[in-house]
Amino acid sequence: MGYSFLRSLLNQSFRIPEPSLTERNLDDQKGRVFLITGYVGCGFELAKILYQHNGTIYLAGRSEEKGLKSVETIKKLFPNAQGHIEFLKVDLADLSTIKPAVDTFLSKSDTLHCLINNAGVMFSPLGSKSAQGYELQMGTNCLGPFLFTKLLLPVVRRTAASSPPGSVRVTWAASVATEVYAPKDGILYDAQGAPQVLGKPKDYGQSKVGNVFLAHELAKKVDKDGIISVAWNPGNLNTELTRHHGVLEKFMLETVFLHPAKYGAYTELFAGWSPEVTPEKNGSYIIPWGRFGTLRPVLQASLEDGRSAKFWEWCEKETNKWA
Length: 323
Fold this sequence. Notes:
Layout: H1 2-13, E1 33-37, H2 41-52, E2 56-61, H3 64-77, E3 84-89, H4 98-108, E4 114-117, H5 136-161, E5 168-173, H6 177-180, H7 202-222, E6 227-232, H8 247-257, H9 261-273, E7 285-287, E8 291-293, H10 297-302, H11 307-319
């Protein structure tokens, strides 16, 4: 693991080529509908790009106050844009809120061209739990987005049926944590078949591996529908995700290691909009600031040996009650 780990980490963190797709060369998005979870950081920056190119954006998250603030800020930044943007309330850490949020979205739109599972939490204090009692990072980063995606799949499929193949997509937030913090085998399970609680930062790493697994499994299920599902490492970014770091650790990261959030949005833009992400690339792993990457060998093998399918099945079982 040593050499491949180091090579992958360096490739995703240093001497990164300039992004190939940005607000400067994105096509007009008029008539297309996007749903982004997370209204700060990368989600906010991606919404800015799409709104100024006349897209229709639903910016989803837990805090109505913060979400509406982001919406109004974006409108003021681009007063001449012909897009539409509004807030959609959902708490990914509470499975009971997800179907109502989907129902609200479906009451307003009968199409969805790209679902960006962007929101998440990182390094939550030890013992933090979701509303249903799951380790908070696994609940917020995996179970919530899984159920959200599952309930939105019918409208995604309908949209794909009348769209060019590969233009309708679902994308998932992974991280370099899959290399740095996750256990060697990606996710470790307890005797009951649930992901073990290992403590931070391993719990965060496991949740990010989970997103890679979910992207891969969804790609297999929707490939015949012309839908693309990919996971992406947005990059090492200065966003609210670092709020649970210590003061000294956060200072060192911001000084040496972190990039502005808009670069993470460029990674997400590539995953969701680049013509380079063709149906033949379905299930790919995207790295900063919009390139095709590779997973470490053990994780790559887990996509084919049943381990990613096992995680999908666990998410399915745990969320069925709320579907």
